[in-house]
């Protein structure tokens, strides 16, 4: 990794260390803002990318870590969390909740813990890749590790 990292990457690296996560953060020369671009850079299946998607659940942030192979069914997620409405968050809402920008949102390293759901589909992969706080970064992890480090709830994200 470069000598001086963006503060968000440093924060994510610190949290990974606190949780004993052994995977190293990978820094790409170009941004990988989508599951497809990240998978292409890594040479893995798009389903092994853990997208960190922030939703507005009745005004509260909700982080859904979903396989790059899925589209989140917001109606199902609303039923799952008992919300009247779950909708895609605005970039400003995402930044306020996570301190990070869309395309680089990590599952951890936020100003405060976020209620987190983890797509059970990610359990099909030995290694999954998640953003590390910046659109140029990812780190290797596993489904079980994502659930552990986020205190997340495993769920189905699409019907």
Automatic annotation (TrEMBL):
YbaK/aminoacyl-tRNA synthetase-associated domain ranges (all copies): 30-148
InterPro entries in the cross-refs: YbaK/aa-tRNA-synt-asso_dom_sf, YbaK/aa-tRNA-synth-assoc-dom
Superkingdom, taxonomy of origin: Bacteria
One annotated GO molecular function: aminoacyl-tRNA deacylase activity
UniProt protein name: Aminoacyl-tRNA deacylase
Organism: Streptosporangium minutum
């Amino acid at each position: 990794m470069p000598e001086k990292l963006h503060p968000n990457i440093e924060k994510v690296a610190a949290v990974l260390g606190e949780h004993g996560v052994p995977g190293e953060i990978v820094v790409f020369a170009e941004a990988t803002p989508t599951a497809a671009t990240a998978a292409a850079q890594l040479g893995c299946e798009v389903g092994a990318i853990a997208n960190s998607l922030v939703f507005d659940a009745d005004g509260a942030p909700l982080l859904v870590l979903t396989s790059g192979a899925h589209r989140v069914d917001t109606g199902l997620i609303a039923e799952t969390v008992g919300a009247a409405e779950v909708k895609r968050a605005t970039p400003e809402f995402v930044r306020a909740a996570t301190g990070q920008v869309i395309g680089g949102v990590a599952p951890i390293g936020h100003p405060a813990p976020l209620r987190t759901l983890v797509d059970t589909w990610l359990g099909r992969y030995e290694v999954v890749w998640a953003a590390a706080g910046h659109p140029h970064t990812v780190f290797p992890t596993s489904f079980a590790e994502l659930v552990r480090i986020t205190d997340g709830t495993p769920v189905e994200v699409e019907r």
